[in-house]
Task: inverse folding
């Protein structure tokens, strides 16, 4: 049931609309990097806003909306991939059967390789290298110890290097 | 590589374009989320049997879903119904029906109508009754302020045929108001511990001079009620001194009143009436009563165990506060892998444990259900669960006998908190 109290409805749409305009485009970019899928990224952002708005009045610091939104988005992405784990396992098996490439890795191929990382490794790399979060901040978002963040990033980068055949190992 | 990676991420991010105008459907969905309800009494779990709160997330993800109540049968100690309000009234009603009087009690919608008149205080001619799945919704469009709410304010009544009634009659197990969202204040284990019950929440509809009435009723000690004005933003906080220490039969009700003191909507049930979001096709008994975060974690653990995916299992372990052994090991997964090398089918045990019914024990969901109770409290269902675990090799027949002999279950058990955090998977004392 949707209440039809006019002033309240307008105020609701206004507040939410302002937050959406201010934060949704950036959130969508993050979601796209986490998932590699534009449509899914948009859906996750919408879902994050639906959930966030219900809790917005409980936020101790409204200025921290972006950080809360980021965490909500990462959690939603995690839930999505948890449900798709079977499909991902299949893709992993297929990847392992592919012959090593001999031509140089193009930047977009790096993107493809990034998408094949485990979701948590990809999330750790995106949060560290795109969102420029510290290891501690990344650990807060992923709800894991700092050591785990280091491990996720290290293993993710190692896998990226291993799959690139250009030989540009740093 | 790192500069290349950063450049790649920035370039790819720029490829994602999102219109900054919020879609109407997102606004509508967010509004509907705020109109959801939580069954009040089910959230009070301290010292009671299987009190379960309706998961607000489950309600929100399926906005057409009606919360389904799973009532316990009356016993010598436990009276689960809220209408008729007492065992004596139920017996009187049964006698009247058997004599051919009061035929309305033989139909769920008839009982819903009687509830609306006798409990909500509505005029008989004003009551509108509508079937909704397993439940019945009552509304009163004649109430001056209710007409302002699109569709009319509804209270969903969960009814059951009274076991053993002949001729069969219906009783109300719980009432859930569409517009009231509430939760007890404080940790579940401490609710009611100091003799008071406090609830905070929000109403989705704000009549003029709206108040919320919290009442707590004990069959022997009587009834206590407190009123609280609803704030302009729709939130409220109400507290009452309980007439007695809350127990399984304690009746807790929260009503939304208009300026004239008329009941617009009501949420009410006995404290230990389990409530679950129903309608999940294919969901088993083991999962139907679980809040969404708990169910999600359980599902993830099961999937990881079935796939033999230790990394996925590790993903479910929180950064701290997880118990997996009493032997001082530092890595749960390494410990479990060591156990498997020594012949213990850890993953099989996980699959077996999470496939049986859980019990709610002081805010934690515990598998298997017998692990959360004294052996003297084990029911036939608990015994069946133990038999299943013996068949799966989780425990031996001797161990099962030892639990009874020593007075507690100390076999393999697992626990997930209400927010979905996996807290333990352990065996032993």
Result:
């Amino acid at each position: 049931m949707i209440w039809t109290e006019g002033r309240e409805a307008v105020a609701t749409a206004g507040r939410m609309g302002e937050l959406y305009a201010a934060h949704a485009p950036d959130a969508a970019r993050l979601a796209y990097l986490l998932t590699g899928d534009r449509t899914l990224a948009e859906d996750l952002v919408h879902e994050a806003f639906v959930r966030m708005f219900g809790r917005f009045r409980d936020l101790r610091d409204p200025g921290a909306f972006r950080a809360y939104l980021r965490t909500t988005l990462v959690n939603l992405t995690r839930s999505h991939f948890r449900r798709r784990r079977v499909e991902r396992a299949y893709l992993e098996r297929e990847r392992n059967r592919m012959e090593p490439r001999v031509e140089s890795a193009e930047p977009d191929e790096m993107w493809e390789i990034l998408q094949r990382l485990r979701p948590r490794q990809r999330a750790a790399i995106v949060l560290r290298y795109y969102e420029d979060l510290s290891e501690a901040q990344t650990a807060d978002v992923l709800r894991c110890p700092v050591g785990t963040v280091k491990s996720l990033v290290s293993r993710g980068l190692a896998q990226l290097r291993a799959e690139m055949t250009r030989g540009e190992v740093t | 590589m790192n500069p290349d990676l950063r450049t790649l991420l920035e370039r790819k991010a720029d490829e994602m374009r999102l219109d900054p105008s919020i879609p109407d459907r997102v606004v509508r969905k967010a509004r509907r989320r705020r109109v959801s309800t939580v069954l009040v009494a089910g959230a009070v779990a301290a010292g009671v049997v299987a009190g379960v709160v309706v998961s607000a997330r489950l309600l929100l993800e399926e906005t057409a879903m009606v919360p389904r109540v799973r009532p316990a049968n009356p016993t010598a100690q436990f009276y689960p119904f809220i209408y008729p309000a007492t065992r004596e009234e139920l017996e009187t009603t049964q006698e009247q029906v058997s004599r051919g009087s009061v035929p309305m009690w033989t139909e769920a919608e008839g009982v819903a109508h009687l509830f609306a008149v006798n409990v909500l205080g509505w005029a008989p001619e004003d009551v509108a009754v509508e079937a909704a799945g397993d439940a019945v919704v009552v509304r009163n469009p004649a109430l001056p302020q209710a007409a302002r709410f699109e569709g009319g304010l509804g209270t969903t009544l969960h009814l059951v045929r009274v076991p053993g009634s002949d001729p069969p009659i219906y009783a109300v197990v719980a009432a859930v108001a569409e517009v009231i969202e509430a939760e007890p204040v404080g940790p579940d284990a401490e609710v009611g511990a100091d003799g008071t019950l406090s609830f905070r929440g929000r109403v989705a509809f704000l009549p003029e001079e709206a108040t919320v009435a919290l009442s707590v009723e004990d069959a022997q000690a009587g009834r206590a009620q407190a009123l609280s004005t609803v704030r302009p933003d729709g939130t409220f906080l109400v507290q009452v001194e309980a007439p007695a220490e809350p127990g399984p039969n304690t009746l807790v009700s929260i009503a939304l009143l208009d300026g004239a003191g008329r009941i617009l909507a009501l949420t009410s049930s006995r404290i230990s009436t389990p409530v679950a979001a129903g309608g999940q096709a294919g969901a088993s008994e083991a999962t139907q009563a679980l809040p969404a975060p708990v169910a999600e974690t359980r599902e993830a653990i099961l999937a990881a165990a079935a796939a033999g995916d230790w990394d996925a299992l590790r993903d479910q372990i929180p950064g701290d506060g997880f118990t997996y052994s009493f032997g001082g090991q530092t890595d749960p997964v390494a410990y479990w892998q060591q156990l498997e090398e020594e012949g213990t089918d850890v993953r099989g045990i996980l699959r077996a444990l999470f496939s049986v019914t859980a019990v709610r024990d002081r805010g934690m969901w515990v598998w298997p259900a017998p692990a959360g109770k004294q052996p003297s409290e084990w029911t036939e269902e608990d015994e069946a669960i133990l038999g299943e675990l013996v068949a799966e090799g989780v425990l031996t027949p001797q161990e099962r006998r030892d639990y009874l002999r020593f007075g507690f279950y100390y076999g393999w058990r697992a626990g997930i908190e209400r927010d979905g955090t996996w807290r333990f998977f352990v065996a032993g004392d």
In short: The first helix of chain A runs from residue 6 to 35. Confidence is low (pLDDT under 50) at residues 1-11, 99-105 of chain A.
